[in-house]
Amino acid sequence: MSKRIYVEDLNVYYGKFKAVEDVSLKVEARTVTAFIGPSGCGKSTFLRTLNRMHEVIPGAYVEGAVMLDDENLYGPKIDPVQVRRQVGMVFQRPNPFPTMSIKENVLAGVRLNGGRMSGKAMDELVEHSLKQANLWNEVKDRLNSPGSGLSGGQQQRLCIARAIAVQPQVILMDEPCSALDPISTLAIEDLIGELKENYTVVIVTHNMQQASRVSDQTAFFNLAAQGKPGRLIEVGPTERIFSTPQQQATEDYITGKFG
Ligand SMILES: Nc1ncnc2c1ncn2[C@@H]1O[C@H](COP(=O)(O)OP(=O)(O)OP(=O)(O)O)[C@@H](O)[C@H]1O
Predict the structure, then answer these.
(1) CATH second-level architecture of 5-255?
(2) Band of residue 1 on the pLDDT scale cut at 50, 70, 90
């Protein structure tokens, strides 16, 4: 159920503006990788290229390859909708569909993909996904209530359940805790630790402690100056990046000298 990602020489453009330059990166299956770096260095942009989500912005395009196991996501016959089925995404602000029930929210991605299921199979999928998202016990008695009635942290776990329900190989998370209180944040961090048993997880975070708590590998991005493209400066096991970074810029960033 989980695949590795190999990125080769990736450049990302918004029209004529090159936002990210020359990134090569390996993410092993069933690991958590954190992207860190100062604002504007291209973390979110790069993350979105891992499921072609950047393509929703007119004029955005990439050069290079993103391999999911042996398949180039940018190959000529690849359908971006299928890519997003394999590589799910959770955003900064929890975004359940407000008028839909909790149950319908979990099933929303499956329905979008045209999946046909019996009522029993749907109930099982809802229960399984909510359990994997550590939300089942809190909502099992109100599955038909609106998703918008949950707390922010619960809504974010609902969005994770929605991502899980389509059975992706990879889950991308773009600052998934930035809108959450500390307790909800810890709940999501615990959940990320559990998700990596089944999925490959990539998370963008501004929180250095969070990166060191949840990730196996950390990638530090930086940009030479405003208006220049972001680059991958250093990537390695999280423990090493935070204890003995090899680049001065990495050390300056993780010790809070800039960013
Ligand atoms: N839709 C867009 N159109 C044009 N340029 C964009 C767009 N989104 C981002 N950019 C530019 O791409 C660069 C990288 O932005 P991005 O949001 O990926 O950085 P980031 O590291 O995720 O920043 P932050 O930590 O503040 O979220 C920036 O110069 C930004 O202005």
Answers:
(1) 3-Layer(aba) Sandwich (3.40)
(2) low
Structural domain boundaries of the chain? 5-255
173 strand-pairing partners:
90, 203
How many angstroms separate the alpha carbon of residue 39 from the centre of ligand 1? 8
The residues, any chain, with a CB within 8 Å of residue 43's CB and separated by 6 or more, are 35, 36, 37, 204, 221, 230
Best residue among 16, 41, 45 to mutate for probing ligand 1, ranked by most atoms within 8 Å of CB: 45
pTM exceeding the 0.90 threshold for the entire prediction:
yes
- Helix, strand, coil: what percent of the chain each, to 5? 40, 25, 35
Pocket of ligand 1 (CB under 6 A): 14, 17, 19, 37, 39-45, 57, 230
